[in-house]
Specification:
heterodimer; A: 695 residues; mainly beta; 22-stranded antiparallel β-barrel; 8 helices; 38 strands; B: 217 residues; 2 helices; 16 strands
Chain lengths: 695, 217
């Protein structure tokens, strides 16, 4: 902690405040003010050149967050999407475009591009760092909108901590953290059990919006200081979830009810060797292995069994070296290799693993010509076996105008590699009209075979344009002004713009003789997201802290906008009569709200009592194209804007006991079809006990 | 099955006459009686009557025939005559001509606004039904007059599409489908399964019929 205080001269008043209260780093103050994700090396927050949000452990505890989704939905610029689990949209970009890391290593196992963040338990987390803007120059594919890095800490000082929480819908969350350390060995373990009975917020429906789920999480971390300058760390994380399913699939008007279960598990193992040659030169070797397994077994009510399975494995080795060349120049470089494979029942054979390998290298220069300016330039090259290589440059700058004003500018290119399904999918939905979707590697081969069998009725022009997919690219610009007039106030204004090209979209490329459609993937889309983010924090007193955030977001499909401008897109008036759609009617990409507002009040006092109240507003967003023009406009079905309110109170006693009571969604806002992840009003109570280390 | 007749008041074809006036000052303004635009609601098109044991929707598989000339339904017993111009069976539309009937009928889909279609251009080609390989009004999601959203099980007429129809007797009509659902409003995605099943297959449209045999509306 001393080191942190020493480092954080710029934000030292904030740190001091957090020091004087009983609760070490309170919700508001960035006590943990070292950021690792932005530069892939530790830097104090005050010297970070890109937009970063830090969520610390205290904040997670005080809001009563259990899963990663719980806390991310309360962050500026982030929206939780529903559909294929709960993914995170960052500044208007879909969940596919944000990489999720645990201690710097990526999580895999996405369904339709969405990584279900409910898989991630928060009990042992030290902090979460969110970097906004393309970060592929350091992290490669998927870091197009940004990076979310979940950091656990082996060097905790709490030897034992146990917590039990019970809430609405028979939701139980039980966790144990244990740790021990000697001078050279640090160990931390985390065990979590979560069970919910699920809930049904849809009237007259037997199918539950959230089904009964049981999840186990196990985490083991071991760090050994081999010498004064060398340490070895090992991490193991296992999660396993079992979901009881009762699914209604609507197929051409026929409803098929199925019962069954879903079992998802993932394992992550990492081994890191860090060595410090001198104060100026250090290196780390990292090995990482992860595997995600999902299996769904269902039986229809008429007795027909079917299943779906997905297995995604990912192995990586990497070296990174940080060289502090002199006081003004830091150089970082690294290289690595990835072996990745997917098996799926939706590919031509579920027994054959589809593989890709990647070799990459990256470098970043950090130049501090004087105490006001920091300039960073970086570049990464990813060579891929199965699709085109990607080159990701980025540059960013921080200029400290004076002690109160700071300007940050970052410009970078991010990419997202085509995923396995876009290359290898070989899926015919016999249950729903027998349409087929073929990945690009399959499409031409499979279709030409079908053609010789006389099963192909028609092929469109775009079929002949099918070729190996290129990565999707985004160019992002972020300009941020931070203003900190005094230790009690903080204000930040950010402008951002992302231009996306080569978007991979599903298109119909032909039809069977039966008329059933055939789809494949093409690099065709162009889109943009742009907006403004405003954040303000005010410390009313040593006990009360208020923060607020607002995001204004505009999105759009560039090709659709061109079509609208040329007067070729129509809508319907109240009578159902067609009219020409004007650009004013266009609402942009689906699932994006123009306005988002957050307001949080946080109270803590010197005897360990805390209380908070959080209000979130999200304006309406497009969910479904109902007027048949294939663009989203105000004549389509929009989800209503809504406010959700949350509160929690608690007390940390000096003997190690903590109690907490909370209520989420106080106003009981429910929108079953558009917000399946938002149950009605729920309550919870938490009991926690921790043994402090004797000092 | 309420039919409302919407008559638009008289108007003067100024466009042509204005040019004439400014140039010669002699031509008398041409007064045109505009065609009546008929609004037709909730024409059932083989509506669902129940579910099979497997849960599949069951319908009778019978077309509903309509005369644009008379603005009236035509009984099925007249299906082999030239009394009908257009017929509906779920999303399939047939026109009295080609393989579908004994009439002179044909059709094509015009992209644009109903009101903007004032004259059928001379080079327009009227397609005829050639069942089962092709139809004058192309069937299939996104190919003809509608899109089908498989996820939400909804059929939506594509905005800005006008069916230009040659009737059984060789006259011309233009027709805009406004909805495929009872009541004339496409159901929201959140509508119940029952509503989606039983309120579908009802055509709502408006049309204009030119009795004088010309291609102008």
């Amino acid at each position: 902690m001393k080191k942190v205080v020493l480092f954080s001269l710029l934000i030292s008043p904030l740190v001091l405040f957090s020091q004087i209260s009983f609760v070490k780093d309170t919700m508001q103050m960035q006590g943990d003010s070292v950021v690792i994700t932005a530069n892939r090396t530790e830097r104090k927050l005050g010297n970070i050149t890109v937009p970063v949000t830090i969520i610390n452990a205290k904040q997670l505890q005080q809001t009563g967050s259990l899963r990663l989704t719980d806390i991310l939905k309360e962050q500026p610029g982030l929206t939780i999407s529903s559909g294929f689990g709960a993914g995170v949209q960052l500044q208007g970009l879909n969940p596919d475009y944000t990489i999720i890391l645990i201690n710097g290593e990526p999580l895999v196992g996405r369904t339709a591009g969405v990584l279900d963040l409910n898989r991630i338990a928060l009990g042992n987390i030290k902090k979460i760092e969110i970097v906004k803007g393309p970060s592929s120059s350091l992290y490669g594919s998927e870091a197009m909108a940004g990076v979310i890095n979940i950091i656990t800490d082996a060097s905790t000082t709490i030897p034992l901590q146990a917590s039990l929480r019970y809430g609405t819908y028979q939701t139980v969350d039980a966790g144990i953290n244990n740790a021990f350390s000697t001078k050279h060995v640090f160990y931390q373990g985390f065990y979590n059990y979560f069970n919910t009975n699920g809930y049904s917020i849809r009237p007259n429906s037997t199918s539950r919006v959230t089904t009964p789920i049981t999840r186990f999480t196990l985490n083991q971390q071991l760090k050994v200081n081999l010498t004064e300058n060398t340490n070895l760390s090992f991490g193991l994380r296992l999660t396993d979830e079992k979901i009881k399913n009762n699914i209604s699939v609507n197929n051409g008007g026929a409803t098929i009810n199925s019962n069954g279960k879903e079992n998802n598990s993932d394992q992550n193992i990492n081994l890191t060797l860090n060595h410090r040659f001198s104060n100026a030169l250090k290196t780390s070797f990292r090995g990482y292995f992860t595997e995600y397994n999902a299996r769904q077994d269902l039986v229809t009510l008429s007795g027909d069994p079917y299943y779906d399975l997905l297995n995604h494995s990912f192995q990586r080795i990497e070296n990174q070296t940080d060289w502090n060349f002199n006081k003004k120049l830091n150089i970082l470089f690294g290289a690595g290799a990835v072996w990745e494979g997917v098996k799926s029942s939706r590919y031509d054979s579920e027994n054959v693993r589809k593989k890709n390998s990647i070799q990459y290298g990256f470098t970043q220069l950090e130049w501090t010509p004087n105490d006001k300016l920091i300039l960073i330039g970086g570049v990464r090259f990813d060579k891929n076996e199965t699709y085109a290589s990607a080159f990701s440059p980025k540059m960013s700058a921080l200029y400290k105008i004076n002690s109160k004003h700071k300007i940050k500018l970052s410009i970078g290119q991010g990419f997202k590699a085509p995923d396995f399904r876009q290359i290898y999918l070989d899926f015919t939905n016999a249950a729903a009209g027998s349409y087929s979707v073929f990945g690009t590697a399959q499409a031409q081969q499979v279709i030409s075979t079908l053609m010789t069998l006389g099963q192909i009725g028609v092929l469109y022009d775009n079929y002949y344009q099918l070729k190996s997919l290129k990565p999707e690219y985004s160019n992002g610009v972020h300009l941020t002004w931070d203003y900190e007039p005094n230790s009690k106030n903080f204000f930040s204004l950010q402008f951002f713009r992302n231009d996306i090209r080569n978007l991979i979209q599903v298109q119909q490329v032909g039809a069977y003789t039966t008329g059933a459609q055939i789809f494949s993937y093409l690099n065709i889309g162009r889109a943009f997201t742009q907006g403004i983010e405003v954040e303000a924090k005010h410390k009313v007193s040593n006990n009360l802290f208020i923060s607020g955030a607002y995001q204004y977001l505009l999105t759009g499909d560039k090709d659709q906008i061109e079509q609208i401008k040329s007067g070729k897109v129509y809508k319907r008036d109240v009578n159902g009569y067609s009219q020409i759609l004007s650009l004013n009617d266009y609402v942009g990409l689906p699932n994006n709200s123009t306005h988002k507002v957050q307001l949080k009040f946080n109270y803590t006092n010197s005897v360990g009592f805390f209380a908070n109240f959080r209000a979130m507003y999200r304006s309406s967003w497009a969910v479904n194209n109902t007027n048949g023009n294939e663009v989203f406009d105000n004549g389509d079905e929009l989800a209503k804007g809504f406010v959700s309110l949350h509160t929690s109170i608690g007390k940390d006693y000096r003997n190690g006991i903590s109690l907490q009571l909370g209520c989420d969604n106080i106003s009981n806002y429910v929108d079953a079809s558009n917000l399946p992840n938002l149950p009605g009003r729920t309550y919870f109570g938490t009991f926690k006990y921790q043994i402090f280390k004797n000092k | 099955m309420k039919k409302t007749v919407q008559t638009i008041g008289l108007f003067i074809m100024v466009a042509t006459s204005m040019i004439a006036c400014t140039k010669s000052e002699t031509a008398a303004p041409i007064v045109v009686t505009p065609l009546t635009i008929y609004t037709v609601k909730d024409i059932p098109a083989d509506t669902v009557v129940g579910l099979s044991a497997q849960g599949a929707p069951v319908a009778r598989g019978i077309y509903t025939f309509y005369s644009l000339e008379k603005n009236a339904l035509v009984p099925n017993t007249d299906s082999a005559s030239t009394k009908w111009d257009i017929a509906f069976l779920s999303t399939r539309i047939i026109i009295n001509g080609g393989t579908s009937g004994t009439g002179l009928g044909g059709a094509f889909i015009f992209t644009g606004l109903f009101d903007d279609l004032k004259t059928i251009s001379a080079d327009s080609v009227f397609k005829t039904d050639n069942a089962p390989t092709s139809y004058a009004v192309t069937s299939g999601s996104g190919k003809g007059w509608y899109t089908y959203d498989a996820l939400n099980n909804l059929v939506t007429p594509i905005a800005g599409r006008v069916l230009v129809i040659k009737t059984a007797s060789g006259k011309y009509a233009k027709l805009e489908i406004t909805s495929y659902y009872k009541g004339g409003v496409t159901l929201p995605a959140s509508a119940s399964v029952e509503d989606k099943l039983y309120k579908q297959r009802y055509y709502n449209f408006r049309f204009a019929y030119q009795p004088n045999g010309t291609k102008t509306f």
